[in-house]
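This part of the workshop introduces the protein records we will be handling. Backbone structure tokens are a discrete shorthand for how the chain folds in space. Once this layout is familiar, the rest of the handout is easier to follow. The record below serves as our worked example for the rest of this section.
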Amino acid sequence: METPKNLLKGYIGESLAISRYQIYSSIAEAEKFIYVAKYFREVIENEKKHAEIFANFIKKLEIEPAEVEVKAPIKFGSTAENLRYAVEGRSGRQRSSTRQPQKLLKRRVSRRWLRE
């Protein structure tokens, strides 16, 4: 039965995303891109909610721990690179929140604005 494994994969994927975005936020803050750091923190809150949804299903369905294979796109770089990685990492996912990094990347804003 694939549903239990898919729920476990979903939970693990969301948990990894939380960690990845925490690092992206720290990098943006260190580079003085305050608004980008704030944006990544907002994404973290969304990912926490998604992880909680998976966790509640896992608990409700009493799914036992199992080995699952999860692909973890873990890349870190500058803030600009991390925004690209965020888009790349989510491009295959099918839900409305996947467009958040793309919206930020497509905005025409000055570097000064991002740092204010």
Q: What stands out?
A: The helical segments are 2-30, 34-60, 79-90, 100-106, 111-115.
